[in-house]
Request: fold
Amino acid sequence: MLLKLTIQADKLYEPVVLGGVQWETAQKGEPGKLTFTVVKDDVISFNEGAPVRLAVDGKDIFQGYVFTKTRNKDHHIRVVAYDQLRYFKNKDVYVYKNKTASELVSMIADDYGLMLGTVEDTKYKIEKRVEDGQSLFDIIENALKITKDNTDKVFVLFDDAGRIALRDIQSMKLNMVIDKDA
Reply:
């Protein structure tokens, strides 16, 4: 398994990483998080907000932004990066009418300047909704719950290596069984 971590600043860096990379995701309501420690040298220089990308065997699995960096006495820099879903923790007011959950996700992504990937049509139109002072996660989760209650379909919101995706869970099934005893 070949890992490639890059940080984009004034130029593209492939830093020396100390102790591995930790990638965390949650089923809902949390952004993807990438944590790693970089060995500081005379070349590397980046700030909070710098884009970070992690690829495994040539396939991008995480794209996000540096949110925090802390340096220790040995000049190692601990970095915490989050994907775009981090912005869904923002609170806002949304009033909408006759929109599907997928249209709502697209509208929010557009309002916040976020990159969209695959957004499958949830089909069910929500008649009217007022969301006041809720996190964007909660606003979308409410729309997805209303959709599930009316269609029995479950949709999953996630960041697909730098693009916001909304997929029907049925379309994400693989034709394989994983068995630890096999």
Remarks:
- The two ends are 22 Å apart (CA to CA).
